[in-house]
Design a protein that fits this description.
Blueprint lengths: L1 H15 L2 E4 L6 H21 L10 H40 L18 H23 L9 E5 L9 E2 L6 E4 L5 E2 L1
Antiparallel strand pairs: 1-2, 3-4, 4-5
Helix pairs in contact: 2-3, 3-4
Length: 183
């Protein structure tokens, strides 16, 4: 599938004479850092909201936390690929694991006790397991499901006769003696 994808883009480049840059080719290290930050935020926000409604038997907080994880996973995989999503998975899992431990005063953010309802009792385990499962499933999805849209189309360079075109009007711009385009 990836080979077919690359051949398709190569055919478009050959036909138009322009070099195309796709999102996958534009991945930068800063996107991996952003994936880590998003993972930390998802871990914190999901942990804070996951127990909402569990005592009443309607785990709306858990559903909201799962939706947050799914949307963040899709965004990170779309933006920085499988490596970025792997970093996101590690960051969110470590944050949730750290938040599940006892605090300095003995307080617990994610309690496990003999609560009367199923969701109230097992919300912690459902949250931790679902967090990893959703992100793992996003890692296993084929890359063709994620956006690989065209970011920029560079004009073809053919040596001295290469010309730049104005993006607004499509007019050919002549180069000045300093190499800067001019109208």
């Amino acid at each position: 599938m990836a080979k077919q994808h690359d051949e398709t883009h190569a055919g478009i480049e050959a036909a138009s004479g322009a070099q195309q840059v796709t999102r996958r080719q534009m991945i930068r290290p800063s996107r991996y850092l952003l994936a880590l930050v998003i993972g930390v935020l998802v871990g914190i926000l999901g942990t804070l909201v996951q127990r909402s409604g569990a005592a009443a038997g309607i785990p709306w907080g858990m559903i909201l936390a799962y939706i947050l994880v799914a949307l963040a996973s899709w965004r990170v995989r779309n933006d920085s690929g499988t490596l970025g999503l792997s970093l996101h998975l590690v960051a969110s899992t470590v944050v949730v694991w750290l938040l599940s431990m006892r605090g300095p005063g003995g307080d617990v953010l994610m309690p496990y006790a003999d609560f009367p309802g199923f969701f109230a009792k097992y919300a912690v385990f459902l949250w931790m397991g679902g967090l990893v499962l959703i992100q793992f499933l996003a890692l296993c999805l084929p890359r063709s499901l994620f956006d690989d849209g065209l970011i920029k189309e560079w004009p073809a360079r053919g040596g001295a006769e290469a010309a730049d075109t104005a993006p607004e009007t499509g007019e050919t711009l002549a180069a000045s003696s300093t190499g800067e385009p001019r109208a």
